[in-house]
Amino acid sequence: MLKEELLGRLEKLRLTRAKKLGYEFPEDNIRKNEKPLYEKGVSVILPTYKGEDVIQKCLESLASQTLDASLFEVIIVINGEKDNTEKLINKLIIEKQLTNIKVHTIDEAGASIARNKGITLASRQYCTFIDDDDYFSNNFLEEMYKLANLDTIVISQIHNVESDGKLQASNPINRQILKSVISKQHPYYKLHTVLTINACKLIPTMYLQKYRFNETLRSGEDIAFFTELVVKNDFKYVLAPLTKQVVYYRTLRENSISRQAMTFDFNVKQRADVISLLNDLLANDDISASKRDFIERKINAQGSFIKKYYEAHPDEYDRIINELAEKKLIYFPYHLINKDRVERLVVSYCFPPYNDTAGNVMAKRMRQAGIVSDVVFNKMDSVRNKSYSLNKMVDDLINVRIPIKSPSSFSNWKSIEKFIDMGMKEVDELVKENGVHKEVFSRAMWAASHFLAYQYKVKHPETKWIAEFSDPLLYDIEAKKRQVDITDHDYIKEMEENVKKAGMPAANNNNLFFWCEYLPYVFADELIFTNKNQLQYMMDVFPIEEIKAVIKKKAIIEPHPTLPERYYHMEEFDYPLLSDEHVNLAYFGNFYSKRNLNDIFEGLKLSKDRVKDRVLIHVFTSKPNELSEQLQNDPLEDNIIVNGYVDFYKFLNLCTKFDCLIVNDSTTKDNKDINPYLPSKLSDYSGSGSDIWGIYEEGSILSTSEQAAFLSPLNDFEAAAEVYEKLVDKKFQK
Predict the structure, then answer these.
(1) What contacts 186, CB < 8 A, 6 or more positions away?
(2) Domains: count for the chain
(3) pLDDT tens digits, 128-151
(4) In a 10 Å sphere around its CB, with 0-12 CB exposed, 13-18 middle and 19+ buried, how is residue 50 labelled?
(5) How much is the pTM?
């Protein structure tokens, strides 16, 4: 065959297949006299494996359908080891003079493999599935086809058939179907079980052929397949009239999922495989709330099998957690196995899935501690974007998440007070059910966290309170005092009385940020500061002298945690702009008056040509357009590659790919005696394996960092040029 002819045939095959998958092509690419994509009617897909003992009733029900035989085809796929099934089918074809049954045999066993084959072969507008030991009511295809539409899934009733032949019309799935007639809920809620089983549905073929049953799953493949089908398309759902008694008769099998013997393989491993596929559907942060809830309900149902196994084998908790951890799940209902292991209440106003450094650091703290916790946080949709993949960092250590629907605010007292009141109501209910937590851990850049933790501590003084400060709160980066009034005078009076009882002065002060520091100083059992300069600065500027000795006694220095190595490969990110011919440096973050890129750019301008020609600086920022405009016609324009913001796991993965990562101090010497800040990026860089270049302010914690392979002082451009030369020599020395 000529090469051109072969290519022509392959192209024709490609177009035909693409059209079958529902893709559209310009009119001039399709011949006007081409045969319609699908014939009218229904394709019935029937997989069978060694079905000689059960298939007879199924075949008879298909032969007895009231729908005209010209309007449906039966695609029987015999898979795996052969028996007399094909002979039985051929005998029926001859006896009933059937012309619409098509038999295909494949050597490989597997219902998913057989169903996929049937889907590929389907030639009618609509498809329905039937198992070889099930059967239809005689009017099934006719009544379902009457209601068919290319944007609609039609649903019938489903009756169970016991092993003795007794029919069960009243079963959980059929009751769900019957109740759906009067329910006003979305089908995702009222038909949540029905939508993800193979039985009792008529589906437009053009949609069905876009998907495949996962052939690696050993159970639950129908759940994975139909969940993907229904959430990736916006179908209408129609129920066949109850008066017509349109019924799918399902034979109950000993090997059905609900009747399987309990084993780690089935209850945990196989369920985790299904859950992993369902999690893939959650990776799209833009998915609607109703679809996300539907997927999570499917995961919860699979998780109930894992819970059952855990309850019978509590000593295998770590084995179960490790199996789930390998899947890198966005969502799993860990409360099913974590309830009896809770030790801590975490109060973190911002928390994953919200994109915020403060929330990520708290999640990293939890990962570092490895303690199962309940978590209270605020719903921050109005001020922060969501990235559900952030849940992978910490979900296995959470029993219950308590999202508080209060207005999000950094410093508005009424909003914070609402968070406190609503949070305490929720936590009180939790304590009633499970008892008082051994510890409460709060972290503030967001002030509300410490106020809620304080309320919990006052109510449950036996609980150990650990309070962390990410940065100084009473004074901002420019050393200006933050002043926001607490408008609830009774609340101030109550705080003052409690402080007096604790033996400390009751300051005559209504400033929210003063109390956000003072309450933890007085009532927390442990105070965490990220570096010694921060501790010193916050003590120096705090106006109550008597508390300073208490702060010192309670203080612990804990730099931001670094995640384990596996998190740096949670999401591999293909970044094609790295050059083997250059030293590739990366800067992640924004720039402003107190933290800018001057050292990076001016140092490169001072570098020798042999160095400059070998350097590429990759900047990742939420303001890429602003920087690109600044670089127009700049001598360094060709040395700088400007990129937009990247999600957290992409950021971690990118950190592993560069020769060097740049971190720089904020400038504080104009208004502070000591630099109290330690850039949080340093902890993320530390786990990457890449070199780190720290551009430090004299006396800062960064200036003495052992994690940085290269150091240069802020605004010392010649020192920066020397770092570039060292980097180039290191990579290209012979």
Answers:
(1) 290
(2) 5
(3) 999 999 999 999 999 999 999 999
(4) middle
(5) 0.85
Beta bridge partners of 467: 442, 527
Rounded Cα–Cα distance for residues 265 and 268 (Å): 6
Residue 521 and residue 424 in one domain: yes
Work out the number of other CB atoms within 10 angstroms of the CB of residue 253. Answer: 14
Indicate if 573 and 537 belong to the same structural domain.
Answer: no
Query: In the β-sheet with 691-696, what is the strand arrangement from edge to edge?
Result: 640-643, 615-620, 583-588, 660-664, 691-696, 710-713
Distances (CA, A) of 530 to 434, 520, 625, 677: 32, 16, 33, 8
CA torsion sign, 388 to 392 to 394 to 400?
positive
In a domain, 330, yes or no: no
What's phi and psi for 328, nearest 5 deg? 55, 55
List, for residues 463-489, the tens digit of each pLDDT value. 999 999 999 999 999 999 999 999 999
CB 538 within 8 A of CB 676: yes
Q: Which of the two residues, 1 and 548, has the higher pLDDT score? A: 548
CA separation, residue 345 to residues 375, 457, 466, 521, 730 (Å): 6, 11, 10, 19, 48
Please, are residues 145 and 42 in contact by the beta-carbon 8 Å criterion? yes
Radius of gyration of the chain (CA): 32
Dump pLDDT digits (tens) for 363-415: 999 999 999 999 999 999 999 999 999 999 999 999 999 999 999 999 999 99
Picking from 536, 557, 578, the residue at the C-terminal end of a domain is 557
| Rounded Cα gap, residues 209 and 20, in angstroms | 7
